[in-house]
Specification:
Lipocalin, five-stranded antiparallel sheet, 5 helices, 19 strands, Autotransporte_beta, signal
Length: 407
């Protein structure tokens, strides 16, 4: 049965289960596991298991006996890694991936709206109720995260749907909001198990201003995430199929400012920006066997700067205007603090709390994009776009289709 705890309940569960271990007396193990650990996470699990009292009669007897029977230290280290909460490490980061995709889609749409306004004929209204626009988008994304110490490899696929509306209350100013849903399915360590699914629902207000020479775009948003994780702990003599659920609260804000330069038939937009993202994974309790964990709430937080350039042009084809665009930017993580640590304890008690240490993702990221917008009659527009995020430890590719109509 999937169980989702509030943050306070999860932390209380971790504390109570750990307290039970303190009442069980001194350890009396057949062997210690610390010497087999090869990573900080494995060492933390080993330290907890070394505190199990009366292992032959404990709830972990089969689990520990199977570790003892493994043929070499490498096999025992692998078992310790499977028993750790390492497969939860990426969950908040995947929520940030979803927020990044939403932000890029909306800023791409704002670029489209801005250029339509700049190139509009004199009879197109520049403010008031006749500038109300409605948009809808559908996105596909794939993310690949490389394995690191105490962090699994991951391949994620996502689908998103978003709708929004906006208006120009005064010339050059766009104000609007969008709502959307996003579903991610992620395979960890290139296998069907462990595997996570995530469903996001959020709202994103946005605004943009331009006077024809420069522009400022801003977005902000709140997203609620629902996680489900299936985790397999399997080594010779032991096999547990575990499952858990959790909720998360996420927040995002971005601001981007740049110039607008007309270079012959090309329009260039050099820009700089600042992005903030926060995502958490609420406390959870697994079910399914002796290896089940209670995991306290942890988070992922990022503050990034960006520098880039966007170049576009316009091609007239009868009643249609085609606007191809390309862009590139460099993002840099500004926070000096790493990701939060992960605290966990075995649900069946008899062990202390153990900790997966803090972690840092790669700080430098290159982001590229390309799009083609087709505008008909200065009212209807469709946009096909691609975005790519490239860092040493991850690659994310996204494709989106956006349609909008001015009323």
């Amino acid at each position: 049965m999937r169980q989702t705890l509030s943050v306070s309940t999860a932390r209380l569960s971790v504390g109570i289960i750990a307290s039970l271990g303190a009442l069980c007396g001194p350890a009396a193990l057949a062997q210690t596991y610390g010497p087999d650990a090869t990573t900080p996470g494995e060492a933390a699990v080993a330290g907890a298991l070394d505190k199990v009292a009366s292992p032959a009669t404990s709830p972990y007897a089969t689990m520990l006996g199977a570790i003892d029977a493994l043929p070499d230290p490498a096999a025992r280290a692998d078992a310790l890694g499977q028993l750790s909460p390492r497969n939860y490490r990426l969950m908040p980061r995947l929520s940030i991936q979803s927020m990044d995709a939403t932000d890029r889609d909306i800023r791409g749409y704002l670029q489209q709206r801005r250029e339509m306004a700049l190139d509009a004929s004199a009879n197109v209204p520049v403010s008031g109720d006749r500038t109300i626009s409605v948009m809808g988008s559908y996105g596909l994304r794939q993310g690949k995260y490389k394995a690191r110490v105490d962090r699994p490899a991951a391949n994620s696929d996502s689908r998103s749907v978003r709708v929004g509306f906006d208006v120009m209350p005064v010339a050059g100013l766009i104000m609007g909001a969008s709502i959307g849903i996003d579903g991610l399915d992620t395979a960890l360590d290139r296998s069907q198990r462990p595997r996570s699914t995530m469903f996001n629902a959020g709202i994103t207000p946005y605004a943009s201003y331009t006077n024809g020479r420069f522009y400022v775009d801003a977005t902000a948003g709140y997203t609620r995430s629902w996680y489900q994780l299936r985790r397999q702990v399997s080594y010779n003599g032991f096999n547990d199929q575990l499952q858990a659920g959790a909720n998360g609260d996420n927040a995002a804000a971005s601001v981007e400012a740049g110039g607008i330069l007309q270079l012959g038939v090309l329009r260039a937009q050099p820009f700089a920006g600042l992005q903030y993202r926060y995502a958490d994974l609420g406390g959870i309790v697994e079910s399914g066997g002796a290896a089940s964990l209670a995991v306290a709430k942890f988070k992922s937080e990022t503050v990034r700067s960006s520098l880039g350039m966007r170049v576009s042009t316009a091609l007239q084809k009868g009643s249609w205007t085609l606007r191809p665009s390309v862009e590139g930017q460099w993002q840099r993580e500004l926070r000096s603090r790493p990701e939060s640590r992960i605290e966990a304890v075995f649900v069946n008690g008899g062990t202390p709390i153990f900790t997966l240490p803090s972690w840092r993702y790669d700080r430098d990221t290159a982001v590229v994009g390309a799009s083609l917008t087709a505008v008909h009659g200065e009212r209807t527009a469709v946009r096909f776009s691609y975005s790519g995020e490239f860092a040493n430890d991850r690659h994310v590719h996204g494709f989106a289709f956006t349609a909008s109509r001015r009323f």
